[in-house]
């Protein structure tokens, strides 16, 4: 992803670094922020439900990469209320906040307060639905005497582009229009330099006692034990079709939002275990995945993460779909359809686009529309294209859906053609990257920090760069294209892809293997010199069969060595390498999705114990994390007893591929697979980690049939019982 933190260059580094960093002052880890997301809208709020006024922080209500609400604060009796509790409910629909009044000073010169604390209770309930942020405020008097409740809501809208909120500066901005204030509504608008008008409309019920362009004030006389309700809503780019009052729209919208999330998540297999804490963690995973899904015309599409990546990314969605394929194949179907539709057709150096290349990122904000950032439709990732073909092959294996594969077969052919024509820049058989737009990403693998590819002495590699894991993806893509091709009657094409894959396997093992390290080089630089650096990238190779069988044990041993495995997970770069830094974004941190992919690779090659260790580490990390939610990444410090993982300051949370990590590790330890032709679910040498005595998987689907199974650990063995099944489905167990 296009995010790097600000650091100071060393003598080995260029004078300029990536142009679009997340500002280091945006320390998401310093504050317990709450996030809501629905469709193309998301909100980031503090614990009280407020949006802090100020620059360089994540807080805000965003729609299509623009901050439509940059400030929101609630005062009670003229002061900021005391926080009692706040949480996002488990289904991710509703933010609930409980507040109370502070001591209110009495007349000057007296020691008697006008009101003691904890007499007025405020309950904030907030959710997002169809471009609208809804909120209900409930104020109740718990005093024995009548009280006058004075409530003030302040608000502002700066219409900052998301990249501005991240820390970028702009030479010019558009024009803010004069506010439009009515009896119970306010409209704030901005004409962007891109010719678009963006409008934030706030509507209140009942009408405030006073209302202007900055705040709404309410006054209520409350008898003992009585309560009053205030409803207001914030709509982005209103369409003027709302006739119902905000109080009625709140109730109907809440019902619709809950129903929509429940309906989409009902597709997924359900998971229940004997460990209640794990149940909390896995429910959070599922709820996060489905909150981050955005319904496109092409089907559900997982946005990458909140706050900085709440948009369509190619690589992130492809990997998320892979990690959740056993759980809900419809996600993969939506991802394949969307990316096929947005496949590049022409050469466009500004967008790093070439015919057949698969999308990296889409942005809708003003800066993207004007070309101030190159990400409007950006293709600067080297791995999205082979991952697209890989996922297509995995989807066919999981579902047998030949109809979808037939419809996207031309896209698969174009993707393979891109690999042949553009991916291999110098004709040496390997796929390399080098940006064509000087404002684009310097590094275009999943580790896209400016300093993530380097030599053993720390010198940055110069391109074009061939990453080790990308060669494995290309190998798997060719094998997948061959399998799909044969299913569609393209036998000659399939044979050619198998031949190309075998040639790549031979060349890869000859050029990338570093005997003295016992692993594969991180990359080859532009002069074809190997970057003799140990890395988690080599773990992705295990997802395929490109490594020779005699070298797999060495790769596994290196990944699980204490210099690499922290106790929580495998570091991106192990301790001892020149640029190792446990606080670096890609050079020593631990990424859950990275470990999930490695876990699947370990299981593929029979390393169940090692996959189980990753499962244990990731679950333990979730145990220590707020809401049991695995973040985008955390620091790579070695695990200490009775302490949680060290947080990374600007990690996104929730993040789609992080949310998919625990489900993927379930698959890896159970050896779970599907055979749509035989209508069978199979388990190969299943294991349950020690923290799980039992696990039940509900409604596993294959070939239109469903089965529910219970797994029980008995020492090193796992017994599997079929609880319920439809008529034709079978369960197979290989020991």
Automatic annotation (TrEMBL):
It comes from the Bacteria. Residues 316-622 form the Mannosylglycerate hydrolase MGH1-like glycoside hydrolase domain. SUPFAM superfamilies: Six-hairpin glycosidases. Coiled coil: none annotated. Pfam families: GDE_N_bis (PF14742), MGH1-like_GH (PF22422). Residues 36-232 form the Putative glycogen debranching enzyme N-terminal domain. This is Amylo-alpha-1,6-glucosidase. It comes from Nguyenibacter vanlangensis. The lineage of its organism: Bacteria, Pseudomonadati, Pseudomonadota, Alphaproteobacteria, Acetobacterales.
């Amino acid at each position: 992803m296009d995010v790097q933190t600000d650091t100071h260059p060393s003598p080995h580094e260029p004078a300029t670094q990536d142009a679009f960093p997340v500002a280091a002052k945006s320390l998401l880890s310093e504050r317990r922020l709450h996030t809501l997301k629905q469709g193309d809208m998301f909100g980031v709020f503090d614990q009280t439900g407020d949006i802090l006024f100020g620059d360089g922080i994540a807080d805000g209500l965003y729609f299509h990469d623009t901050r439509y609400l940059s400030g929101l604060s609630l005062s009670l009796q003229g002061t900021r209320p005391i926080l009692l509790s706040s949480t996002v409910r488990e289904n991710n629909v509703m933010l609930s906040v409980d507040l109370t009044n502070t001591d209110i000073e009495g007349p000057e010169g007296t020691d008697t307060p006008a009101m003691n604390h904890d007499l007025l209770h405020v309950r904030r309930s907030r959710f997002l639905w169809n471009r609208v942020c809804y909120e209900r405020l409930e104020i109740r008097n718990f005093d024995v005497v009548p009280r006058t409740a004075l409530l003030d809501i302040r608000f502002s809208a700066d219409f900052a582009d998301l990249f501005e909120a991240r820390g970028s500066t702009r030479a010019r901005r558009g024009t803010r229009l004069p506010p439009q204030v009515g009896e119970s509504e306010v409209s704030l608008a901005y004409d962007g330099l891109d010719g678009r008008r963006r409008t934030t409309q706030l509507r209140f019920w009942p009408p405030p006692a006073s209302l202007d362009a900055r705040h709404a004030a309410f006054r209520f006389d409350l008898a003992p034990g009585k309560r009053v309700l205030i409803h207001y809503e914030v709509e982005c780019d209103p369409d003027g079709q709302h006739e119902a009052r905000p109080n009625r729209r709140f109730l109907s919208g809440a019902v619709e939002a809950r129903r929509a999330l429940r309906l989409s998540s009902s597709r997924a297999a359900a998971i229940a275990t004997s460990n209640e804490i794990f149940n909390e963690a896995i429910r959070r995973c599922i709820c996060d995945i489905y909150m981050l899904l955005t319904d496109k015309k092409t089907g559900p599409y997982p946005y990458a993460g909140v706050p900085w990546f709440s948009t369509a990314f190619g690589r992130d969605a492809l990997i998320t779909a892979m990690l959740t394929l056993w759980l809900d194949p419809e996600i993969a179907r939506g991802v394949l359809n969307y990316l096929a539709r947005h496949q590049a057709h022409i050469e466009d150096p500004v967008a790093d686009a070439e015919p057949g290349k698969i999308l990296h990122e889409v942005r809708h904000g003003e800066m993207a529309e004007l070309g101030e950032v190159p990400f409007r439709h950006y293709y600067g990732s080297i791995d999205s294209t082979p991952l697209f073909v890989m996922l297509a092959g995995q989807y066919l294996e999981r579902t047998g859906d030949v109809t979808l594969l037939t419809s996207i077969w031309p896209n698969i052919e174009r993707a393979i053609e891109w690999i042949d024509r553009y991916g291999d820049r110098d004709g040496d058989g390997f796929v390399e990257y080098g940006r064509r737009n000087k404002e684009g990403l310097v590094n275009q693998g999943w580790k896209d920090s400016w300093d993530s590819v380097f030599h053993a002495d720390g010198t940055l590699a110069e391109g074009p760069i061939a990453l080790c894991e990308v060669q494995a993806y290309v190998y798997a893509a060719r094998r997948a294209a061959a399998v799909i091709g044969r299913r569609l009657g393209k036998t000659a094409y399939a044979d050619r892809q198998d031949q190309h894959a075998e040639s790549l396997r031979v060349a890869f093992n000859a050029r990338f293997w570093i005997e003295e390290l016992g692993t594969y080089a991180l990359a080859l630089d532009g002069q074809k010199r190997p970057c003799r650096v140990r890395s988690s990238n080599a773990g992705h190779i295990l997802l395929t069969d490109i490594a020779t069988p005699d070298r797999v044990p060495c790769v596994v041993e290196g990944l699980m060595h204490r210099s690499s495995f922290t106790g929580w997970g495998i570091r991106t770069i192990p301790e001892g390498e020149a640029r190792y830094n446990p606080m670096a974004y890609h050079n020593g941190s631990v990424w859950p999705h990275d470990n999930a992919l490695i876990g699947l690779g370990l299981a593929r090659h029979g390393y169940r114990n090692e996959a189980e260790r990753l499962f244990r580490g990731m679950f333990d990390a979730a145990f220590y994390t707020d809401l049991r939610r695995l973040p985008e990444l955390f620091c790579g410090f070695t695990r200490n007893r009775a302490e949680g993982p060290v947080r990374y300051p600007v990690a996104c949370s929730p993040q789609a591929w992080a949310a998919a990590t625990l489900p993927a590790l379930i698959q890896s330890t159970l050896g779970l697979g599907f055979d749509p032709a035989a209508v069978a679910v199979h388990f190969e040498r299943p294991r349950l980690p020690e923290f799980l005595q039992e696990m039940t998987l509900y409604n596993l689907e294959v070939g239109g049939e469903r089965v529910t199974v219970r797994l029980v650990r008995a020492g090193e063995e796992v017994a599997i019982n079929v609880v319920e099944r439809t008529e034709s489905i079978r369960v197979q167990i290989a020991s």
